[in-house]
Amino acid sequence: MDAAGDGLGARVPLADVAVGRCVRVLEIGAGPAMVRRCLALGITVGSELEIRRRRGRGVVVANGGNRVAIGAEVAAQIVTEPVG
Question: I need a surface site. Which of 12, 19, 35, 46 has the fewest CB within 10 A?
């Protein structure tokens, strides 16, 4: 099983995290436009997200009381680490 599936490892793209796992955002890649887009969705460096559903390589995450769908290209640019 890979780092996203078994909770091991330090840095995992959001697109590779297994359903049900909780992660903390470490980095949002691809420049300032991507950072602004994520900020508009309520996702910043330090945010804790729970992966609720997979949609191909895209994901639906819970961020506090909100659920947000994130496409595959964006999810691949968000670097996370497992929480607890």
Answer: 46
